[in-house]
């Protein structure tokens, strides 16, 4: 009798296992390769991760991720590919070489690349008009500076971050031709202490608003700004809670929204293979968080609103 019960139990467990396997196979699966600064950057990576959490909660996908803190982009990306995900995403321009190489090696794998453009037929490229958001930040800095000195701090000295810098400078000069824009690059996205040191130098030169586009390095900038009693701007995600006495607003690069939309379209079999998506203010790819700590006059607010309407 016990043997019979044992056999029945095994059969039932096997049946349940088969059902679970079938269900898992039917669920859309995503693999996410973060940039080398990893989760907890309070910026780009965290935004991407939030996007996949939302797709999991609302669309029922499953996802896994890797953090290439050892710079092993190819190895980590290939791990995700071998896990047989429906979509594998590379975050940041540093992932582009690995995505392009492995897109050739695995032509049947669907990839997405964020913040860089690929010409591979199995790669969806997602870029943002970061200069539009930086322009808006520059307008605020130019309008509200009392010293006529503001600062920009970049992470690595690369074309993508130059877009942030140029947009910021253009915004400042559009409303304040007398303002000086201090600029320095940290050479890294992953060192908050370097960010703090550069911010300190700019503050010594009378900068009263600083805009970092520097990933985790920028966290040090925000904290130093708060420590020294000046204002700063967040980037990519809402960074107000990192330095609540300093962060006036944050320029949002809505990576989370973009990834949610792409996954939703792929689930609905809306072919996106090889497409290049460039998202700005009008596409909900770029935005600002609520302005805090300072007050804009009606005229100043009108300037910001008009720029947003134009998508500048």
Explain what the structure shows:
The chain is 46% helix and 20% strand. By secondary structure, the chain is an alpha/beta fold. It folds into 2 domains: 27-128 and 255-283, 3-Layer(aba) Sandwich (Rossmann fold), CATH 3.40.50.2300; 130-253 and 287-310, 3-Layer(aba) Sandwich (Rossmann fold). The longest helix is centred in the first third of the chain and has 25 residues, at 2-26. It starts with a helix and ends with a helix.
Layout of SSEs?
Layout: H1 2-26, E1 29-33, H2 44-59, E2 62-66, H3 73-82, E3 87-91, H4 96-105, E4 110-114, E5 123-128, H5 130-144, E6 149-154, H6 159-175, E7 180-185, H7 192-204, E8 209-213, H8 216-228, E9 231-236, E10 247-253, H9 255-267, E11 276-279, E12 286-288, H10 298-310
Parallel strand pairs: 1-2, 1-3, 3-4, 4-5, 5-11, 6-7, 6-8, 8-9, 9-10
Antiparallel strand pairs: 10-12
Helix pairs in contact: 2-9, 3-4, 5-6, 5-10, 7-8
Question: What does this entry show, briefly?
Answer:
The chain has 312 residues and is an alpha/beta fold. It is 46% helix and 20% strand. Residues 1-19 form the signal peptide.
């Amino acid at each position: 009798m016990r043997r019979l019960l044992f056999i029945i139990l095994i059969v039932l467990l096997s049946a349940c296992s088969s059902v679970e396997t079938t269900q898992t196979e039917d669920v859309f699966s995503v693999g996410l390769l973060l940039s080398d600064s990893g989760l907890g950057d309070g910026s780009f990576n965290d935004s991407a991760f939030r996007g996949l959490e939302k797709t999991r909660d609302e669309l029922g996908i499953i996802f896994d991720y890797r953090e290439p803190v050892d710079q092993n982009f190819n190895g980590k990306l290939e791990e995700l590919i071998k896990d047989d995900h429906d979509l594998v995403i590379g975050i940041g321009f540093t992932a582009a070489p690995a995505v392009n190489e492995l897109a050739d090696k695995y032509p049947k794998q669907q990839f997405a690349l964020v913040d860089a453009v690929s010409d591979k037929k199995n790669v969806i490229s997602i870029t943002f008009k970061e200069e539009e958001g930086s322009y808006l930040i520059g307008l605020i800095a130019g309008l509200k500076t009392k010293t006529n000195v503001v600062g920009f701090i970049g992470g690595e000295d690369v074309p993508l971050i130059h877009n942030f810098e140029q947009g910021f400078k253009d915004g400042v000069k559009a409303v304040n031709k007398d303002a000086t824009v201090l600029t320095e690059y940290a050479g890294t996205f992953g060192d908050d202490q370097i960010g703090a040191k550069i911010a300190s130098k700019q503050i010594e030169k009378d900068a009263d608003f600083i805009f970092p586009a520097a990933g985790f390095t920028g966290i040090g900038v925000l904290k130093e700004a708060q420590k020294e009693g000046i204002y700063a701007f967040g980037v990519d995600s809402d960074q107000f809670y990192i330095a609540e006495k300093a962060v006036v607003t944050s320029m949002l690069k809505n990576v989370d929204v973009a990834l949610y939309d792409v996954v939703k379209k792929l689930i609905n079999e809306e072919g996106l293979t090889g497409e290049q998506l460039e998202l700005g203010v009008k596409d909900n790819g770029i935005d600002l968080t609520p302005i805090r700590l300072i007050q804009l006059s009606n005229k100043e607010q009108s300037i910001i609103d008009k720029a947003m309407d134009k998508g500048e």
